[in-house]
Amino acid sequence: MAAEVDRLYGELRARPEDNDLRARLAWAIRRMTEASLAVTVYQVRVIANERQRDLCRQAAAQILELAPWDGELRAFATGLTAELEAGDRWVWQQKPIAVTLAACTAGIGLVVVVTGGLTRSIPLVVAAAVLSSAVLAGIVLGFRRQAWRQTAQAAAPVLESTGI
To answer: Where are the transmembrane segments (predicted)?
Structure first.
């Protein structure tokens, strides 16, 4: 499919005003994009890695640029763009566990800070503040994922093909 896209791009350089050619190229890009995605056993296409996301982002822009008058292609490209934007959201994985760990870390850190303050131990206050902040940062980094990664991880057991 990539060869077809390359060939059509070559033709388009020679005939940049040919709308039929532009539409055929946009359709070829759509087919290539769909073929590059992972597919579940239920025949659902899934964006499963960064390379696929990059290809989809590029394809959506190219399709809209090549054939903005084609309603079906425009719907595909805008749908793809919406899926990419939704996948960019950061979501919690195992939120109850993350919240519990964060609350315990904050509570323990606060108790140690208060203890350090009551005993007038500045090193204890500083150490408690730094360590509890580091642990909280670790919890956030460990339990937050972009939505597309979470979707890809959930689909992994039922993937029939991984795409590119």
So the answer is: 97-118, 124-143
pLDDT for residue 2 is more than 90: no
* Lookup: tokens for 112: 């140690």
Q: What share of the chain is helix, strand, coil (3-state, %, to 5)?
A: 75, 10, 15
Write down the pLDDT at residue 1. Answer: 80
The rounded distance, in Å, linking the Cα atoms of 128 and 106 is 10
Using alpha carbons, list the distances in angstroms from residue 39 to 44, 72, 74, 152: 5, 22, 23, 11
d(CA 137, CA 102): 9
Query: Is residue 23 a contact partner of residue 32, using CB atoms and an 8 Å limit?
Result: no
pLDDT single digits (tens) 87-131? 999 999 999 999 999 999 999 999 999 999 999 999 999 999 999
pLDDT in tens, 143-153: 999 999 999 99
d(CA 140, CA 92): 9
Could you state, in order of their start, the residue ranges of all structural domains in the chain? 2-89+148-161, 92-146
